[in-house]
Amino acid sequence: MTEEQRQQQLRRAVHERRTDAEAHVLLGKSYLRQRQTRLAEFHMTTAVELDPKYAAELLVLQKALGRSPQELVQQAAAAIQKLKQRLSQEPDDQQSRISLARIFAVLADAEQAESLLQDGLAIEESTDLKQSLSAVYAGMAIDLFSRKPLNQTQTAELGQKAVLLNPANSKAISILFKSVQSTSMLDPITLRPALVHWRQQLKRDVTCVQNRLHLMQLLTVCGLFDEAIEVLKPIADMNVNSQAHLARLFVLAGRTDEARGVTDGLLRELRSGATDDENAVVAVAQVLLIENRLQEVVDLLQPHVTESNRPPGAELAARYVQSGFALFDQKAAADESFVGTEQSLELLQRIHSINPAMQSIAPRLAKIAGSQGVAADAANQLVLRILTQGKLNAAVYSAVGAESILQEDLDKAVVNLQQALALAPNDPVVLNNLAIALVRRSKDNAGQALKLAQQALSIVPGHLELLATRGEILLALNRLSEARQDLSAVLAESPTHELAQRLLAEIAD
Known about the structure:
By secondary structure, this protein is mainly α. It has 28 helices and no strands.
């Protein structure tokens, strides 16, 4: 049956049964498939007036049409009230509970949706409620990952909850796969229901690509890399992303030669111009990062960052920044003379142009500015330019102050750290470094330095570096017993701590 024929039948059904809410919904969806949005919205609105359980579908449509959050809340108000009344009369009405939870989820009130469904499961467990709660958790995880991509632990926790409630939830599996890091794999026993489900799905249909991808993702997050490789291999040539996943799995499984073979093939393909898919470029960059091939990552991503006619996507930009910083640190550790070169500054300048709010640039830029290299003056100019922009002032002042301590320019350290403290009065790192700079500049400052160290320790109690700092200050105050206590506590936890060892030796002498 064509869409026109289906639509004709639905129009007849709506004409004959004007109060049939489901018929209006189906007709609305038919109009939507043909991009007749005004007619679609009319019939969806009519359906909600007849039965509030369809409000979520209408809100999704109106959200896609660009309605404001306030308009959506107003549109949903009547349906929310009706559904709440139903639930107050019949708390075990699962359909009304699920419908109301879906409305709250669309309105971005995930906590209300979660609470409603949890209350329903406390009354009576059901597959429908579990699937709905799984969808809520997956939505929360996806939203969190998009807003705070570095907060992967919480994202993974939400994704795992969603998968355990509904192993078939493909969105939950996908976000779990994105958020779980190779250093914190999940327990296969915990995810056993989901693994069993997808192993059975693949057994029923070995030709289904989705079955293989979902099982591969679950096996990967559980650290079952060799099995994941065997699941992915038959479809690995499907696209660049699949090949990149295969290379990553080889790396994780310790099969480095096989990983390099796949990765090198992908690099040849990208360099030949066979594909300009940004997602494919990101996928290959991720594999190179795992293999610690940092220079190759930067070389691969740089044209997309600096030479493309359109701004790079968020993931590509994040990978470039990540690899750029890692490359800077790697080169600086291997050769101190790298810091202060034009090459080192150019790398940071490109990172700054992509993400001017990236705080991690400050300590590296301070290293160049404090060096004797040819790029030191230009780095100082960039520091001043960043300060005039007013976005990273606390981070920059803090970084310049910390670097000045290393260079033993204590006057400069104190000036910059005092500026940082004015902008970030409760930053324990700033408090600690200013205390160090003050006491090392003059023992007469020890009393003021001690107050700063005490404040830092009240924010982060027991922190080893802060205890070492307080030990140094107490030694300057000739409070030897207290200094010995702090420094001994540091060495008990970190026996090779150089500062604590040296200061304790001074006390012994």
